[in-house]
Design goal:
The structure is a homodimer. By secondary structure, chain A is an alpha/beta fold. Chain A has three domains: 6-86 and 286-363 and 476-528, 3-Layer(bba) Sandwich (FAD/NAD(P)-binding domain), CATH 3.50.50; 96-123 and 367-465, Polyamine Oxidase, Chain A, domain 2; 171-269, de novo design (two linked rop proteins) (Up-down Bundle). In chain A, 33% of the residues lie in helices and 20% in strands. Chain A contains 15 helices and 26 strands. In chain A, the strands form nine sheets. In chain A, strands 13-2-1-17-26 form a five-stranded parallel beta sheet. In chain A, α2 (64-75) packs parallel to α7 (286-296). At the A-B interface, α1, α3, β8, α4 and α5 of A face α1, α3, β8, α4 and α5 of B.
């Protein structure tokens, strides 16, 4: 498989490889998906026959990749052991609620003080509908799902550097209606002026004008955009004579819209990973971790910090330290699945080859920070009629204020006060927990007058400062994808790597699960040989 | 107030009228809403002071308008009595579940045979975020809400008469990506060809090209549209080398898209009533009816069919018939709020003036039909990865197949097999319940191969054939809005009208509630005078 560029493989290549990797089950799924014109997606674990009885597999890390591997290999009869550095399972699949503690490297201890029933998913927080691998387990384990509102046209867009539209609470619905309305009008004008007669037949022109009038809701008489109900009303329609039909709102000016660059907050269609329908588990993302843990928990040795990884042609030996007692111990197995993030693995002593070590060290990890703010009152629902979704802003280090998609109309709620990456994440993570709160409140109150007064309690995380993660997710460059990724994907000897980093779904739980599915198929193939 | 055109009133007029109708509370809300640039909306019942003690109000109809009036007037101390023709409260706010019965006029009896826990909201089924009046009561009564997925880009569009794209299961995401991508490319080309130099400054051209490249995800090098991940993949990205980055999908041809007119299934922004976030009560829409009934049920006389309405300058007398026993009775009160649909009211004997009667008779009611189909398997989730939302089709009499927004990943589910109006509704309502099922299955299996085999049980309604409704909702023409609506809104003597028909939110529960709010304010003003 080596360094093939996955984007350029032919269909035949793909089918060949699908059969090689996943057996005929995967091949069949792939073909039937094509036949129906539906995107193929890894929707179920590999169908493996035979037995793993008498073979031992050591798994490093009880995140979703590790627990997926343990669960599926356990069903085949393998003797599985997981070493987990933390005192709980789930890896980054965490939910902060009352009593949850975190001490970042060099940071102050935080204990979550949210009210009973309130929480923030400070790790993964969304499950796209096409992440069928994650959804395979929510279904199989009976984990209740609810819609995560990832797209809300009635939310706010608030730009500090938005030119003529700076510091206004714009609604995405207004922006979409007015930008697309004006663009439709402009193109309609062009078509009518015969500027596109070389491009379009007379029939096409007629059809295009028809489409533009519909898309932009242009006036039938002159194909001009004059506002529309979809951008919202000044006074909403209601009963009786007043408000009666309501009062239309005035469109934003096209030149102001262009100059503000506010049209960049949306696009023709949502990016693939962000499309509706988006889910979250009822009660917190860690319901997934708990469901796995319930099934494989007895194989997990907690607070076991891996010290070194060694192998020979018979097996793998891992030395680890009990972080509570400080005692050293070791575990051996026929094969090892290592799900430790590369950011951490690079610091662990091993007998991997130099090129393998270099590949591990070549992968960057994303600095990422989030903060959950418990508000004593849902002012965003009560005053602004925003139910879930994201307030988008260019306030440095904030990016989004995301409103909860659960507990509708309840008294309190926990919102996401920022979600930042890279430089901003590094800068803000240097603040104390209390200073981070102040940073978030100072920004939020620019948008919501009730923000500061409603604040009760916070929990923040900077993933690049979390001991056993050292980053939010792997960030592959084109170069490391071409060079390091194929090498790491092969594993080394009896050690195979799994986790979100071993996928093109980095930062998503599906990447961890699907990567585990691939590696257990390989181990089983080798162990059965 | 008379026949003023609500759309053309000035802001000053509006404020004046708002104060006159709703008192200073409404005036304040309106002004502050303007100040913040948020659409005003009727969000709470009128703040009425004083007492209604010693005054009797007779309410005709225990739908949401009638029960809202009873609930709010009851709090003021009025003696309230409701006459309800049915044996249950809620009016059109109904949910069909196991055991629910319906016999349409001239039709066969239907008893819903869905499994325990399965249901269809065959009346109202959606609560838009801006229907703050409905949401006022769901919050006050503690009715749990969940998201109703009203917009799903991964659903299907299936056209029988879609020209070159006929009989294909297209995804809205594909259509949006490709239509808007091509339109963006076309306009970018025009801008580059200097065809718009008279319209746009050099800066504006630059900004517009920048926007178009983003909206259409055009290639940076040549501003051409070449597909995008947002339209979905041929093979989704995943783990390892295969599928790795996945395989992109090919865009639909622009001329095919134009010729198919498939771009009409979406628009720049969702129409105002259809925008996210959309809600439904957990467990069925009738949770709202039940919550009201719990509070005002003791004032309701069920199975009481109104026979006549008479008034003099002292009060109102209504003669009614117990539909179980056939016995006649009468009830008197100081004032009457009549929420009986105009389609039914026109058949009831009254001493209304001729012009008032003519106004009542001039309002058309919508023929509307729906069918719920219980499927033994959620093939739309399992095979097509469609979670909620609407499959849109031009198959005559179907319009939409809507997938349930609850019970995600459960075994069974009830989908909406059609939702039709006007001629189609009239034609299909002439079929027997079994024939309607066959009609729905024959259409659905064109889109979903598993449709017919998965079918278990159905419940259908044709609202224009439902005895106490005779239509889905009031359909005002421009003429009847101008002439009949103001007249009916005034009521006659001591009888005031309320219901969705007395609003610009026809067919929505909010129209019923807000109309009731307005009329109780008027009654209280008159009773207090």
């Amino acid at each position: 498989m080596a360094s093939a560029n996955a984007k350029s493989i032919t269909r035949r290549d793909f089918l060949y490889r699908a059969a090689a990797v996943g057996g005929t089950g995967l091949l069949f799924n792939t073909m039937s998906a094509w036949g129906l014109g539906i995107a193929s997606t890894a929707a179920a674990p590999p169908q493996l026959s035979g037995s793993g009885k008498g073979k031992k597999i050591l798994i490093l890390g009880a995140g979703l990749a590790g627990m997926t591997a343990a669960y599926e290999l356990g069903k085949l009869g393998y003797a599985v052991q997981i070493l987990e550095a933390r005192s709980f399972a789930g890896g980054r699949c965490q939910t902060a609620r009352k009593g949850f503690t975190l001490t970042e490297l060099g940071g102050d201890a935080q204990t979550c003080g949210f009210d009973e029933g309130e929480y923030i998913n400070h790790g993964p927080w969304r499950i796209p509908y096409h992440h069928q691998s994650t959804l395979h387990y929510t279904r199989q384990f009976g984990i209740a799902l609810e819609v995560m509102v990832n797209d809300n046209d009635n939310s706010f867009v608030y730009l500090e550097n938005g030119g003529p539209l700076s510091k206004q609470r714009l609604r995405p619905a207004q922006i979409k209606a007015d930008m697309r309305g004006n663009v439709a009008e402009l193109l309609a004008k062009t078509v009518q002026a015969k500027a596109l007669d070389q491009e379009l037949s007379s029939d096409d022109k007629h059809l295009l004008l028809d489409y533009l009038a519909h898309e932009g809701q242009l006036a039938a008489s002159d194909l001009r955009y004059k506002g529309r109900s979809g951008r919202g009303y000044a006074i909403n329609p209601g009963a009786g004579m007043v408000p009666g039909a309501g009062t239309p709102s005035d469109p934003l000016g096209f030149k102001d819209l262009l100059a503000s660059k506010v049209g960049h907050v949306y696009s023709a269609v949502q990016d693939f990973p962000m499309q509706n329908t988006m889910f979250q588990p009822v009660g917190g993302m860690d319901q997934i971790a708990r469901a796995f843990e319930k099934r494989v928990g007895k194989t997990i040795r907690y607070q076991a910090e891996v010290q070194s990884i060694r192998q020979n042609d018979k097996g793998v030996t891992v030395n680890w330290k009990d972080s509570a007692s400080g005692k050293l111990a070791s575990a051996s197995a026929d094969y090892c699945i290592c799900t430790i993030p590369l950011s951490v693995l690079r610091t662990i002593d091993s007998d991997f080859s130099d090129s393998f070590k270099q590949a591990i060290a070549s992968v960057a990890y994303a600095p990422v920070g989030k903060i959950g703010l418990q508000m004593k009152r849902r002012f965003w629902e009560e005053e602004d009629h925003i139910y879930g979704g994201h307030v988008l802003t260019d306030i440095k280090g904030i990016n989004t204020i995301s409103l909860p998609s659960a507990g509708w109309q309840k008294k309190k709620g926990v919102l996401l006060g920022y979600y930042h990456y890279q430089t901003a994440a590094i800068e803000i993570s240097a603040l104390t927990p209390a200073e981070r709160v102040e940073f978030a409140l100072a920004a939020g109150e620019k948008i919501f007058p009730a923000y500061r007064d409603s604040f009760e309690s916070a929990f923040s995380v900077a993933w690049h400062r979390v001991r056993y993660n050292l980053g939010g997710w792997a960030e592959w460059s084109d170069k490391s994808r071409a060079k390091a990724y194929p090498l790491l994907n092969e594993g080394q000897g009896r050690v195979l790597l799994a986790g979100e980093h071993m996928s093109y779904l980095t930062g998503w739980q599906a990447g961890a699960i699907e990567s585990a599915w691939q590696q257990i198929a390989r181990i089983h193939e080798r162990a059965s040989a």
